[in-house]
Design brief:
194 residues, 6-stranded mixed β-sheet, Jelly Rolls, mainly beta, 38% strand, 6-stranded antiparallel β-sheet
Length: 194
């Protein structure tokens, strides 16, 4: 496995070896030893999956506040998605900047999203399945999010979102929630471990 730096400190692209033969292909989505050898110590508490039926399904922008801030390694097991990590860390020089990339089973690319980041994706193909390796348990009391179309972020989605949950539509805009976000991340500690 190989880590590729993005323009945002702490946010990585993980390139996984894809082995192909007459049956198809094989790729390991998560290997704590290999990811640590690549330079990113990793902790996994949950492995989650979601399948989105329609093209243009948007999930996010989601995150959890400390002490339940979560890191994720996100991979696409079927179909194709455009995955994005958004820096929400207080005092970060890249705060509110984002980086997105295409994930497919064939390209062997995953996104390593650290604590203090928001996460979202949009499906590029029908029946797209995403696998998330997550560093901490889900904590409803610490869950939050921001709108996918927040003007502070100016995310350039590759296609128009067509399926969005009511919950994701209801997240407030950053400009109206700055105090909440800053307070929520006030205990944030920039860890090296995922």
């Amino acid at each position: 496995m190989k880590l590729e730096l993005t323009p945002i400190e702490g946010l990585f692209i993980l390139h996984r070896p894809v082995r192909r033969d007459e049956r198809g292909f094989f790729s390991r989505i998560f290997g704590a030893d290999e990811i640590a050898e690549a330079g990113r110590p990793t902790q996994a508490v949950h492995v989650n999956t979601s399948t989105s039926i329609e093209v243009g399904t948007l999930r996010g922008i989601h995150f959890q506040y400390p002490p339940h801030a979560e890191a994720k390694i996100v991979s696409c097991a079927s179909g194709a998605i455009w995955d994005v990590g958004i820096d929400l860390r207080p005092n970060s020089p890249t705060r509110f900047q984002w980086y997105g990339t295409k994930l497919t089973p064939e390209n062997g690319v995953s996104m390593v999203i650290p604590e203090g980041f928001g996460h979202a994706f949009i499906t590029l193909e029908k029946n797209s399945t995403v696998v998330y390796v997550v560093s901490t348990a889900y904590a409803l009391s610490h869950e939050s999010g921001v709108r996918f179309d927040d003007p502070t972020l100016k995310i350039d989605w590759p296609i128009e979102p067509t399926v969005i949950s009511e919950k994701d539509r209801a997240w407030g805009l950053i400009e109206h929630r700055m105090d909440e976000i800053d307070t929520g991340f006030s205990n944030f500690c920039n860890k090296d471990a995922v």
